[in-house]
């Protein structure tokens, strides 16, 4: 079981009389990209925030790298990196200063330029954060979440609101992070994103996990239940047209 | 903290303090890039300094605003009018030329009294060698005190003139003499009050405006996912606000000295040490309110409830000695009162930190109470 890094057991969260997360259990393997899918209000973000130590756990247990989240939240904070839904930063700050601030929050001293280069923001190092585009902000946010070499990296709907180029670029970044040995746990609304990125996905609805497997297996299971889609053989779709016309190059 | 983890360099106390310094540096840099913050911290108190400073300019000498109606055309009366004009005791309203106008202005309290020099005033009566006459002082019933003072001042003036014409023996006389080489002027009170006002701006309005925005954008929540501790965040804010506060106060001193001729009778290091301690304490209120409030709608009314009593009762805009005794006793214990009193004692009353036991004690007590509260109510989102 040593290849399991995050272990969630009977996790529960209640707001008033609404059960937001209803006794869910799952495990995340070291080095995989694990997706949590589901409609709005399914409990995805609440689940993430409980693992991230910023939301109180009402029932059940979570361990990250063998450490109990409820018992030692501060120890957990040192080994996780978090990219929240909205990438906002205090304005009037240079990109290098943002990186410096996050590193300091973890008690680290880093070379900001190196981290900015990794997310292709090296040229903007001395820009102010308010001058960045949405995609650049997301990339800065990723760089800021990784300044302390975390073991687990959380992304909450990272590509919402990005153009196709920026989205593809972000996918590449997430894969690069995973290839460095960091376990990635992410939520998304985009199924094609989950198919491209995630090694395994959990589908949540009404606070429960209703399916958990690799995207391929989930599709296979659906087909084996006799599901049939109107067969239209498309050699390409509109997104292919868009990318073909506008190119893959990242726009900022 | 875990004993076995304490060895890890990133979690050592030294490193935690380094984190505070990095955040302080970045906060301070942001302030010097933020025009709006600079306006509220530096320019805004300066505007008040100019307004209140001009109102309370001068040495605090009494002067009377009078209408002077000269109906005589004797040379004596013309000289007399010139003398009154140049006197610092009287401010003559030049725009008033008729009795009707003057009475109208007096009934609106725009002038304190009317001095009438009748047509015969200053003429030389038959059989005499010197001029004579009787000036009239008119005042309203509601200002008899002012009127009587005005009358007796004129009596004194005439007495001086009389002795030049006719010498009479004076068995009794009064001589006025300055005993204190320096005494407090209204501006001294105004200035320390306005320093208190800028400390309120730095300590309370600053964080109360910033926190709800940081919470709304999820910036604090994100910091909460890092191991950053609340005390580190507070301490960095304390240090950066102290730095900006010192800059703001230096500018206020410079303006007060240059424009309003403030005489500083104390040591600047002591004044600034005291000001920094005051900023730390008052900032606790801002951290408590901003840290507790979920959004602007909670932060704004609460900060007003806390700030307004202090603005009006701690001597910010009105000196506390004008208040009734019971109110003074009560307002002695407001957090801002020892700050303003202490600043005035250090700046213009020649006192030293060592003489400020009561003020420093009260600031220390408030510091402990306020920060205990601020840590308890702080929320990251």
What would you say this structure looks like, in words?
The complex is a heterodimer of chains A (about 250) and B (about 375). Chain A is an alpha/beta fold and about 250 residues long. Chain A has helices at about 45-50, 75-80, 95-105, 110-120, 135-145, 165-180, 190-195, 215-225, 240-245; strands at about 5-15, 20-30, 35, 60-65, 65-70, 80-85, 150-155, 185-190, 200-205, 210-215. Chain A has a 6-stranded mixed beta sheet with strand order 6-7-8-3-9-10, with helices on both faces. A 4-stranded antiparallel beta sheet of chain A has the order 2-1-4-5, covered by helices on one side. The longest helix of chain A is centred in the C-terminal third of the chain and has 16 residues, at about 165-180. Chain A starts with a strand and ends in a 6-residue tail after the last helix. By secondary structure, chain B is mostly helical. Chain B has helices spanning about 15-35, 35-55, 75-85, 100-105, 145-165, 185-215, 220-225, 230-260, 270-290, 295-315, 325-330, 335-345, 355-375, and strands at about 65-70, 90, 115, 135-140. Chain B has a 4-stranded mixed beta sheet with strand order 2-1-3-4, with helices on both faces. Chain B is elongated, with a radius of gyration of 29 Å. The two termini of chain B are about 25 Å apart. Classes of the chains: A alpha/beta (about 250), B mainly alpha (about 375). The interface of A and B includes residues 89, 90, 104 and 148 of A.
């Amino acid at each position: 079981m040593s290849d399991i890094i995050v272990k969630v057991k009977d996790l529960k969260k209640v707001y008033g009389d609404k059960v937001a997360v209803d006794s869910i259990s799952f495990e995340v393997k070291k080095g995989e990209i694990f997706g949590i899918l589901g409609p709005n209000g399914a409990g995805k973000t609440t689940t993430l925030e409980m693992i991230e130590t910023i939301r109180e756990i009402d029932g059940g247990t979570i361990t990250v790298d063998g450490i109990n989240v409820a018992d030692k939240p501060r120890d957990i904070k040192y080994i996780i990196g978090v990219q929240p839904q909205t990438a906002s930063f205090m304005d009037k700050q240079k990109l290098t200063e943002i990186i410096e601030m996050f590193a300091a929050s973890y008690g680290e001293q880093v070379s900001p330029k190196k981290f900015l280069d990794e997310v292709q923001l090296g040229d903007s190092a001395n820009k102010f954060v308010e001058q960045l585009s949405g995609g650049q902000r997301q990339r800065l946010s990723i760089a800021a979440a990784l300044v302390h070499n975390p073991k687990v990296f959380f992304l909450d709907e990272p590509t919402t609101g990005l153009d196709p180029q920026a989205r593809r670029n972000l996918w590449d970044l997430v894969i690069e992070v995973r290839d460095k040995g960091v376990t990635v746990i992410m939520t998304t609304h985009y199924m094609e994103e989950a198919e491209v990125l995630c090694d395994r996905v959990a589908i949540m609805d009404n606070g429960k996990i209703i399916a958990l497997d690799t995207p391929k297996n989930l599709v296979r299971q659906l087909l084996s239940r006799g599901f049939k889609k109107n067969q239209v053989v498309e050699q390409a779709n509109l997104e292919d047209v868009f990318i073909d016309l506008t190119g893959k190059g990242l726009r900022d | 903290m875990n004993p076995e983890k304490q060895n890890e360099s990133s979690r050592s106390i030294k490193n935690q303090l380094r984190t505070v310094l990095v955040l302080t540096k970045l906060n301070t840099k942001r302030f010097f890039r933020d025009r709006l913050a600079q306006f509220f911290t530096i320019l805004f108190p300066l505007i008040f300094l100019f307004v209140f400073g001009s109102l309370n300019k001068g040495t605090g000498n009494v002067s009377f605003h009078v209408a002077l109606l000269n109906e005589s055309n004797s040379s004596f009366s013309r000289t007399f009018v010139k003398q009154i004009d140049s006197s610092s005791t009287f401010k003559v309203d030049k725009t008033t030329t008729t009795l009707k106008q003057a009475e109208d202005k007096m009934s609106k309290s725009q002038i304190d009294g009317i001095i009438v020099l009748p047509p015969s005033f200053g003429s030389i009566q038959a059989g005499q060698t010197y001029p004579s006459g009787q000036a009239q002082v008119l005042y309203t019933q509601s200002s008899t005190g002012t009127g009587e003072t005005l009358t007796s001042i004129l009596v004194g003036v005439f007495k001086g003139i009389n002795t030049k014409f006719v010498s009479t023996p004076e068995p009794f006389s009064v001589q006025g003499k300055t005993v204190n080489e320096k005494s407090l002027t209204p501006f001294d009170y105004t200035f320390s009050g306005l320093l208190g006002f800028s400390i309120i701006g730095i300590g309370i309005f600053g964080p109360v405006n910033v926190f709800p925005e940081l919470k709304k954008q999820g910036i604090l929540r994100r910091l909460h996912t890092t191991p950053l501790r609340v005390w580190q965040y507070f301490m960095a804010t304390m240090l950066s606000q102290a730095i900006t506060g010192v800059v703001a106060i230096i500018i206020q001193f410079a303006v007060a000295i240059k424009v309003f001729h403030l005489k500083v009778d104390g040591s600047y290091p002591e004044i600034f040490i005291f000001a920094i301690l005051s900023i730390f304490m008052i900032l606790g209120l801002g951290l408590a309110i901003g840290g507790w409030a979920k959004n602007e709608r909670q932060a704004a009314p609460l900060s007003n409830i806390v700030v307004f009593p202090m603005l009006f009762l701690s001597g910010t805009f009105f000196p506390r000695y004008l208040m009734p005794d019971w109110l003074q006793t009560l307002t002695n214990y407001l957090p801002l009162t020892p700050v303003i009193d202490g600043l005035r004692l250090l700046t213009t009353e020649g006192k030293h930190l060592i003489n400020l036991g009561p003020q420093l004690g009260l600031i220390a007590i408030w510091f402990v109470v306020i920060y205990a509260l601020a840590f308890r109510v702080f929320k990251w989102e």
